[in-house]
Amino acid sequence: MTSQSSTARWVGVALLDYDNDGYLDIFFTNGASIPGLNKSNRTFSNRLFHNNRDGTFTDVTERAGVSGEGYSMGAAAADYDNDGWTDLYVTGVNRNILYHNNHDEHVHGRNREGPSDGHFRREEVVVGIGCVGRLRQRRASLISS
User: Fold this and answer.
1) CA–CA dist 74, 13 (Å, integer)
2) Distance in angstroms (rounded) separating the CA atoms of residues 86 and 99
3) How far apart are CA 131 and CA 90, in angstroms?
4) Residue 22 burial (CB < 10 Å; 0-12/13-18/19+)?
5) Which residues contact 3 (CB under 8 A, 6 or more apart)?
6) 65 with 4: CB under 8 angstroms?
7) pLDDT grade for 34, boundaries at 50, 70 and 90
8) Dihedrals φ, ψ of 141, to 5°?
9) pLDDT tens digits for 119-135?
């Protein structure tokens, strides 16, 4: 094995209904090239798979904007801003990323009542001790605006 191995290293998983269609979708985190710890090619991208409701899944990673950065290790899915849409928090080596599910509000003009193709925007990067406090501050500023 070389130090620049391009083998996928699936290390974390989250089940979520990112598009509010009533079916669980699957998000996998992935590693990165070593020793650089960067996603030097698509092999290292995190992956989001949309449930097609027939036992198959479609890779929607690029469209959703959640391919990630660096060496991702874990994921949590929750509606952090209480808007009715599941967001993703991805943990990794030297960085953590919160992906806010904007449920296509800026792309297709859909409202929160109907299903969405699910686009995420990178809302915040927090690293190290004290990240929870910064996340709470960011959430407070989103709610008040």
Assistant:
1) 7
2) 10
3) 13
4) exposed
5) 34, 35
6) no
7) confident
8) -70, -30
9) 787 765 555 544 455 55
